[in-house]
Amino acid sequence: MLRTLLGEKPRVNQGKLKQAMDTMAFTLESFEKQMYVDHDPNHDYRNLYVWTQGLISSLDELEQSYFAAAHFRKKVVAGSTRDMSSAEKSEYARYVYFYKDAFIRCFAILDKLGTVLNEVFQLNTSKTKVHFSYYTVLRQFEYYRDHHELAQQLIKIKEAYREPMSRLRKRRNMEIHYMNSEMQDDLWQLHQTLRGKVKLEDLDQHLLEMQQGVDMVCETLNMAYRYINRIWRKQILKH
Which of 59, 57, 103 is nearest to 210 (CA)? Predict the structure, then answer.
């Protein structure tokens, strides 16, 4: 959708994004078939079907937000906000909007996945923490040895992206709970200069970290749903 609005060609899924999308699409087909077979009297499959649909849509929106942020970043050339024309300030504002949207969506998707994993594997995370995050669910896996393989794979992905995700999470927390992240940078820099000329944050570094965040989410979704699909096939064979 955003690509069309920005005059770009529609996206063709590739790489990690395609893997995650395809794996979740396969899960939807499996749920749909099973609902047709046993009519899903307790709505267990229906709930997972809806949640998985939501994750596919959320991942699509995350990628679009990252793409839009990168698109508008190309139009920002000044080194500080004071040196920008009014037109460039507008482009910078659009970049900031989609960049924020992307890092907020990044953790929202992980938390939604945490809900799915908690339900599928009956981890009872809510007994540990009522409002839990994906990372809480991941820690909860330590107490359930039945799915140790999945837990280790997800932890491996988390560790591989520890540094960029830590920085993105800090910005997310600042944006949601305190003040927006670029305002924090601005305040710090205003204290460093008598002239009050604020040097722009490193947009390319921020986008690189955001791309790594998208990759982390894609790898995590792909790994989790590949495991769910494998468990699903085993259950079907038993019946």
Answer: 103
Distance CA 151, CA 117 (A): 11
Structure tokens at 93: 């504002």
Query: What is the amino acid identity at position 183?
Result: M
- Provide the 3-class DSSP secondary structure of residue 91: helix
CA–CA dist 23, 142 (Å, integer): 25
Strand stretches in the chain, DSSP E: none
| pLDDT of 53 | 95
Residue 237 has pLDDT above 50, yes or no: no
Q: CA torsion angle for 90, 94, 99, 100 (degrees, to 10)?
A: 90
> What's the DSSP call for residue 80?
B
* 130-159 pLDDT tens trace: 788 999 999 888 778 788 899 999 999 999
